[in-house]
């Protein structure tokens, strides 16, 4: 069942709607502003409803604070080096908003857009036209994102089509804490990621080529470990990110659905099993979080993100594109899914 209500009003007077997707004792709230996942409430081992997504209680929070909390990201999730790429012999320049690079769609990405909405059965469908030239990208890109919650599975299905060859790399930037949002840090959350390699970065966090094996490093989550166990390790890549903010290259082919991660809390018993058909995931541990949230002040490492995507900067690095390219040719369909299954 999906219900809607007024969430609030923007500074310029636009109404923000909140859609609640109910699945028995589970529910998720999604906004038409930025496709934001505002909350996911699941029962803990004792049946107590627990919100595991960090966010804000009002529109002003999302307008005034950075961090992309819960937002739908596009046209290009993560970073493109120096905001430059070449398509079909033509060079394009994008707005650079992060250390001389293009991040999460630029100056006004999909996270700041008002999305058209409709309800189809048990799915909330958000849609958007990103016009030719927006943020420097070619092509009119029609995007449709479907949200559903059934059997404990919160599902996000991304679909897009362009009338010109362009770039497309969509993701969601939900900030999770399996202890419950506002309950300290996630350093005691346990995490498993099915991954053998990460992409090392330059000092501005751009992957510029090559892969790094995780075995024997702080980036190895092939066996469950607490997120905080190695986060202060004296590792050059880890220090460069101020914690985890790195692309983990997933096993299996792009386009094949796979279980890639499990996060869990010993405190609440809540477990989140993650699936995707995308080729990679960015693990980000909320390094430098500093904002008032729904029930507490979010400090450093108050949450973690698992952003399914193609490898950042793959448009400029052939070996990354071979794992899954973000080039979307005219008329082709971009079609990927992310699933989060909750149990306690």
Provide a descriptive summary of the structure in words.
By secondary structure, the protein is mostly beta strands. The chain has one domain (2-186, 284-343): Beta-galactosidase, Chain A, domain 5 (Distorted Sandwich), CATH 2.70.98.10. It has helices spanning 59-64, 236-241, 318-321; strands at residues 2-9, 15-23, 26-31, 37-43, 49-51, 72-73, 79-80, 84-87, 90-93, 102-103, 116-120, 123-130, 141-150, 153-162, 166-167, 171-172, 190-193, 195-198, 212-213, 225-226, 245-250, 258-264, 271-276, 280-284, 291-292, 297-298, 305-309, 327-328, 333-343. The chain has a nine-stranded antiparallel beta sheet, with no helix packed on it. A five-stranded antiparallel beta sheet has the order 1-2-3-4-5, with no helix packed on it. Strands 19-18-21-24-27 form a five-stranded antiparallel beta sheet. The longest helix is centred in the first third of the chain and has 6 residues, at 59-64. The radius of gyration is 19 Å and the shape is globular.
Brief rundown of the structure:
With 344 residues, the protein is mainly beta.
Write the layout of secondary structure elements.
Layout: E1 2-9, E2 15-23, E3 26-31, E4 37-43, E5 49-51, H1 59-64, E6 72-73, E7 79-80, E8 84-87, E9 90-93, E10 102-103, E11 116-120, E12 123-130, E13 141-150, E14 153-162, E15 166-167, E16 171-172, E17 190-193, E18 195-198, E19 212-213, E20 225-226, H2 236-241, E21 245-250, E22 258-264, E23 271-276, E24 280-284, E25 291-292, E26 297-298, E27 305-309, H3 318-321, E28 327-328, E29 333-343
Antiparallel strand pairs: 1-2, 2-3, 3-4, 4-5, 6-16, 7-10, 8-9, 11-12, 12-13, 13-14, 14-29, 15-28, 17-20, 17-22, 18-19, 18-21, 21-24, 22-23, 23-29, 24-27, 25-26
């Amino acid at each position: 069942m999906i219900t809607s209500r007024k969430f609030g009003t923007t500074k310029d007077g636009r109404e923000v709607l909140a859609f609640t997707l109910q699945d028995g004792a589970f529910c998720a709230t999604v906004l038409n502003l930025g496709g934001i996942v505002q909350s996911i409430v699941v029962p803990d081992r004792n049946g107590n409803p627990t919100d595991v997504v960090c966010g804000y209680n009002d529109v002003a929070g999302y307008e005034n604070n950075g961090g992309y909390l819960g937002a739908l990201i596009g046209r290009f999730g993560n970073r493109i080096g120096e905001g430059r790429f070449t398509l079909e012999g033509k060079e394009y320049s994008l707005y650079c908003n992060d250390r001389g690079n293009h991040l999460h769609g630029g100056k006004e990405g999909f996270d700041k857009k008002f999305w058209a909405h409709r309800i189809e059965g048990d799915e909330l469908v958000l849609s958007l036209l990103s016009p030719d030239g927006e943020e420097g990208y070619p092509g009119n890109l029609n995007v449709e994102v479907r949200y559903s919650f059934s059997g404990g599975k919160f599902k996000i299905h991304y679909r897009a089509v362009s009338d010109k060859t362009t770039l497309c790399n969509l993701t969601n930037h939900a900030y999770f804490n399996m202890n419950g949002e506002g309950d300290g840090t996630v350093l005691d959350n346990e995490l498993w990621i099915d991954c053998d390699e990460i992409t090392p970065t330059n000092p501005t966090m751009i992957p510029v080529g090559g892969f790094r094996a995780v075995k024997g490093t702080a980036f190895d989550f092939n066996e469950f470990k607490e997120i905080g166990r190695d986060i202060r390790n004296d590792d050059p890549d880890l220090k460069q990110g101020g914690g985890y903010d790195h692309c983990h290259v997933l096993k299996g082919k792009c386009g094949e659905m796979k279980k890639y991660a499990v996060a869990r809390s010993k405190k609440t018993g809540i477990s989140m099993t993650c699936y995707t058909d995308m080729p990679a995931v960015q693990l980000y541990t909320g390094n430098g979080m500093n904002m008032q949230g729904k029930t507490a002040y979010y400090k450093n490492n108050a949450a973690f993100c698992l952003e399914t995507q193609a490898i950042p900067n793959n448009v400029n690095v052939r070996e990354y594109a071979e794992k899954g390219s973000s080039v979307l040719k005219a008329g082709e369909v971009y079609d990927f899914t992310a699933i989060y299954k909750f149990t306690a």
